[in-house]
Specification:
Largest sheet: 5 strands, antiparallel
CATH architecture of the largest domain: 2-Layer Sandwich
Distance between the termini: 55 Å
Radius of gyration: 31 Å
Strand content: 25-35%
Number of strands: 15
Helix content: 25-40%
Length: 344
């Protein structure tokens, strides 16, 4: 009985020998499909990975570290502890700033992370109204996993930083239209500021105090509702002018103190500049530059992206004015292409 049962059992080797043509056909088809799939594989120097960390930051100018801890940091910490996947909550309180790190458990699946970050933003947003007046934020940062495989430097000989940024914004729009581009970010950007430099001698001469100038500026540039009136057909909103449109408008601000009125420009120097000290600066081959980083979408082909970026850079170069040029700082597509060539 056992020998008869073994003879009825299907024998794959025997079947293959009896149908050699069919086996050869499947072998050739499988090989062709594999070769075709190989040419469509995504290629990247850095594999996609998920950072399970979020940073929550809030600013409170003028507050001490103890005040920040008691009225901002502690509230954020307690709310974050309500997240079920929380592993570690670490906070730092400094004068004027609260910094809280949220680390979720290692066992948390990557596909669940976006929902967790949404819950964090939602819960912190629910308690934002309990923060003291003057608190800015909170601000959230959960994009630690972004890698910029292509970095460009925008250089302009004798061109100001503001002008470079204007051209960088146009380049950003062009690069975002390239397939497989996920994000375009700037590096070395210097935020613009308006500086009002006061002379103690003039303040004493005119009998002014710093509070008088601050109050006048806040009152002049305030964004407040002025009401509206309705007609039979429409509602007309009242929006009084008075906002600062340029530096001259700031200089013409009227300062009133002790029964007299003065122009701000008579007692202070008003000028435009950049944040000092700068947060970050970029230099390319010894020249001040404006950095532009390009990251690839998940699952994309870095070599194909590099080819499309080359085409986009040619178009961009044609549009840039004389004296401004776009240089490559990092080129991951070429590095990956060389690495794949060495491997094969």
């Amino acid at each position: 009985m056992s020998g008869h049962g073994g003879g009825d059992r299907f024998n794959l080797s025997e079947w293959g020998l009896a149908h050699r043509s069919l086996v050869l056909y499947f072998l050739v088809v499988s090989t062709l499909i594999g070769l075709f799939a190989y040419t469509r594989l995504g290629q990247s120097e850095d594999p996609p990975f998920t950072f399970k960390v979020m940073v929550v930051r809030a600013e409170w100018p003028g507050a001490s570290a103890r005040e920040v801890e008691q009225q901002v940091t502690d509230k954020i910490e307690k709310k974050l502890q309500e997240i079920a996947q929380t592993d570690v909550v670490r906070s730092y309180s400094r004068p004027g700033e609260a910094l809280v790190f949220l680390v979720v458990k290692d066992a948390t699946r990557s596909r669940d992370i976006p929902e967790i970050w949404y819950q964090v933003r939602k819960k912190i947003g629910d308690i934002a109204h309990t923060f003291p007046t003057g608190v800015r934020g909170p601000f959230f940062n959960d994009e630690f996993g972004d890698t910029y495989g292509n970095i460009f430097a925008l250089i302009g000989e004798g061109v100001g930083h503001a002008e470079l940024k204007r051209h960088a914004e146009a380049i950003r729009g062009e690069l975002l239209r390239v397939a497989d581009v996920a994000k375009v970010s700037f590096f070395g950007e210097q935020p613009q500021r308006v500086f009002i430099e006061l002379s103690n001698t003039k303040l004493a001469t005119f009998g002014l105090q710093l509070g008088d100038i601050v109050a006048a500026l806040q009152a002049q540039n305030a964004e407040t509702g002025a009401g509206f009136f309705e007609t039979v057909e429409e509602r007309v909103w009242l929006r009084p002018s008075g906002q600062f449109e340029d530096l001259e408008a700031i200089r013409d601000t009227v300062i009133r103190a002790r029964g007299r009125a003065f122009r701000l420009g008579d007692v202070a120097e008003v000028k435009r500049g950049y944040a000092d000290p700068p947060g970050e600066r970029l230099r390319f081959q010894g020249t001040e530059a404006f950095g532009i980083g390009v990251s690839m979408r998940a699952g994309g082909d870095i070599i194909e992206l590099g080819r499309k970026l080359d085409e986009a850079v040619v178009r961009i170069d044609r549009q840039l004015p004389a004296g401004i040029r776009l240089e490559r700082v990092a080129d991951q597509p070429r590095a990956v292409k060389r690495a794949v060539g060495d491997f094969t």
